[in-house]
Amino acid sequence: MENNFNKDWKQYILNEGHGPEVSVWVQSLKDHLNMLRPRSVKEDKRIQLMKHQLNEIRKATNRLQKEIKILQEENQLLQEKQENGQKSDEKN
Fold first, then answer.
1. How many degrees, rounded to 5, is the angle at CA 70 between CA 52 and CA 60?
2. Measured between alpha carbons, how far is 53 from 60 in angstroms, rounded to an integer?
3. pTM reported for the whole predicted model
4. Helices in the chain by DSSP H: which ranges?
5. Nearest to residue 25, comparing CAs of 10, 53, 46, 5?
6. What is the C-alpha separation between 26 and 58, in angstroms, rounded?
7. For residue 2, which of 21, 39, 28 has the smallest C-alpha distance?
8. Over the stretch 14-50, which tens digit does the pLDDT of each residue have?
9. What is the DSSP letter of 19?
10. Whole-angstrom Cα distance, residue 51 to residue 34?
11. Contact, 25 vs 13, CB < 8 A?
């Protein structure tokens, strides 16, 4: 289990960030956390905390992805408007 995570992380570093989306990494971490079997109440609480924090990370990345999409659409509209403005200037 840990070996797979280390292998995935090493591959991510070697590819300099080119690879799976953040959601894939979050899902992988979630799967690994679900495989852990706590041996004490203290470990169980730590795992529950990590699961909660991972869920918050997932929510935050989803919000950021939505904001990025909106900004990309706005940028596209502005570029199209600028191109249309340049074309009308060339006609005059």
1. 10
2. 10
3. 0.65
4. 2-14, 22-35, 41-91
5. 5
6. 7
7. 28
8. 665 566 788 888 999 999 999 999 999 999 999 999 9
9. S
10. 9
11. no
